[in-house]
């Protein structure tokens, strides 16, 4: 006699959902906003952890320790950071556009290629911070101190430096056009190849600065020395000071001088080859006050 097996009631229960195949796995609800953005974060030790490409946009961070963290590609756009430590953190390609950074520690942090457009840095330690090729137009630095920060090829167009004391800053090939300096001192800064055109500063802001004049600047210096409308004492002015003045010229002034310099090409070659003018040394030389 054949025994009939009754199926379990659950076997008739359908797992199908409208518009979904019966065998499809259950859907996960998508996260509507990043877990860190637009939130308050206080008193956290997050040191030596990895937060690459995380989004902290609009967040308020207070008393956070990010020291030694890997934050490459992270976004802190319009975030408010107070008493936050980024000591020795990696922040390459990070975004701090519009962020307010107050009383933080950026010492030994790497910001290579980072974006700090219109960010504000207030009373922050920047010793040995590396901002090589950072994009920071409109940056405002107020009351920040730094020893040997590296700002090679950084873009600081229109930046403002107020009550700032930086020592031995490396500003080689930096773009400081239209930058303004108020009670700011960059002692012994390296300004070789820096663009200071239309910047509002004097040599008092850069005491003992280092400048290696470029070939074009040496050419323009020769024109200044031989120009009939040049100041009477221009011939005795060291070449590095003249190069410094050239960097302060507006684009239009520089263009006019460049056109006049076209006739001095042979004289330049003579100067460089014979060393007729003793202060046209290619070595780094300190700037003395005007």
Could you give a quick summary of the protein structure above?
The protein has helices at about 215-225, 240-245, 250-260, 265-275; strands at about 40-45, 60-65, 80-85, 100, 120, 140, 145, 160, 165, 180, 185, 210, 285. With about 290 residues, it is of the alpha/beta class.
Structural description of this entry:
- The protein is α/β, with parallel strands linked by helices and 290 residues long.
- The chain folds into two domains: 36-211, Pectate Lyase C-like, CATH 2.160.20.80; 215-286, no CATH class.
- The chain has helices at residues 215-226, 239-247, 251-261, 265-274; strands at residues 40-45, 60-65, 80-85, 100-102, 120-122, 140-142, 145-147, 160-162, 165-167, 180-182, 185-187, 210-211, 285-286.
- It has an eight-stranded parallel beta sheet with strand order 1-2-3-4-5-6-8-10, with no helix packed on it.
- The radius of gyration is 29 Å and the shape is elongated.
- The model is unreliable at 9-21, 24-33 and 263-290 (pLDDT under 50).
